[in-house]
Amino acid sequence: MSRLAWFPFFPDDYLGGTNAFACAEHGAYLMLLLMQWASKDLQAVPDNPTELAHLLRRERLTPKVRAKFTSITIDGHKYLRNQRLAREWANAQHITDTRRSAAQKRWAKNAHAYAKAHANGNAKHGANGHAKGMTSTTTSTTTKKIGITREA
Predict the structure, then answer these.
(1) Per the structure, how many domains does the chain have?
(2) What's residue 96's pLDDT?
(3) The whole model's pTM is what?
(4) CA–CA gap between residue 114 and residue 137 (Å, rounded)
(5) 152 belongs to a structural domain
(6) Over the range 122-132, which residues count as b (16 or more CB within 10 Å of their CB) and which as e?
(7) pLDDT at 119
(8) Which of 25, 31, 48, 49 could form a disulfide with 21 if both were Cys (CB 3.0 to 4.6 A apart)?
(9) Residue 66: which domain range?
(10) For 27-57, what is each residue's pLDDT tens digit?
(11) From the CB of residue 120, how many other CB atoms can be counted at a distance below 10 Å?
(12) Which residue has better confidence, 40 or 134?
């Protein structure tokens, strides 16, 4: 699976579901969500108190934060998963895959038309990539420094 560079975040849902959290609990919860997102298609974080304490820089998960995750077992190992985030990740992955597929089709179609035009000698562009008869121009701008003095 590819890395998803964006993270859907719904402030109203987050605040509504965490309004009883202390500041440190917010940090631990958000760190777990981010680690789950970064785990890609596993979509889970290890359910190991020692490892979690190290990752979160805390002694343990509070019951309020722990309640936001479901225990699951994958290949004999215990994990924690926030089900809402797992659904959001699957949806984001679907959107990304759909857009990638559409782009690949678009590029394949354009590449085929480009190749066909060049094969038939009907290319609309010259060797420099510009339409025939067009030339490239460069514009430059100059910035002047303006000295401002302040009188006392």
Answers:
(1) 1
(2) 87
(3) 0.66
(4) 25
(5) no
(6) eeeeeeeeeee
(7) 73
(8) 25
(9) 8-121
(10) 999 999 999 999 987 889 999 999 998 989 9
(11) 8
(12) 40
Cβ contacts of residue 68 below 8 Å, gap of 6+? 17, 29, 32, 82
Residue 131 in any domain: the answer is no
Q: Look up residue 94 and give its amino acid.
A: H
With respect to residue 138, please indicate whether it lies within any of the assigned structural domains: no
Q: Decide if 145 is inside a domain.
A: no
- Identify which of 44, 23, 137 has the alpha carbon closest to the alpha carbon of residue 89: 44
**HEC string of the chain?**
CCCCCCCCCCHHHHHHHHCCCCHHHHHHHHHHHHHHHHCHHHCCEECCHHHHHHHHCCCCCCHHHHCCCEEEEECCEEEEECHHHHHHHHHHHHHHHHHHHHHHHHHHHHHHHHHHHHHCCCCCECCCCCECCCCCCCCCCCCCCCCCCCCC
